[in-house]
Amino acid sequence: MSTDSPEAGPQVLLGLEQILIERSMTLTELSHRTGITMANLSILKNNKARAIRLSTLATLCETLGVLPGDLLLFQPSARPLEAGRDDAPTPR
């Protein structure tokens, strides 16, 4: 059984698609400006990446004129936490 489902826990996502829409910029144009391949940008835009190099994040931020916090989005876990504890064991 895979633990990669969105319900499995919190996720950090990339808001690249929204920033591109706001700037009326295509992936092709971003690829030309950054030197990052279309394939890699597509993976990032569609939130299929499991990781991102800090150098890639820095290049995107510089090119798009944003801060890392403008690109990175946090999606909390769908599981409720036990009152006051985020590491509480599941009751049996």
Automatic annotation (TrEMBL):
Q: Which residues belong to the signal peptide in this entry?
A: none
Pfam families linked to this entry: HTH_26 (PF13443)
Note the Gene3D superfamilies from the entry: lambda repressor-like DNA-binding domains
**SMART domains documented for this protein:** HTH_XRE
According to the entry, every stretch annotated as the HTH cro/C1-type domain falls at 16-71
What protein is this chain from? Helix-turn-helix transcriptional regulator
Annotated organism of origin: Actinotalea lenta
Question: What is the taxonomic lineage of the source species?
Answer: Bacteria, Bacillati, Actinomycetota, Actinomycetes, Micrococcales
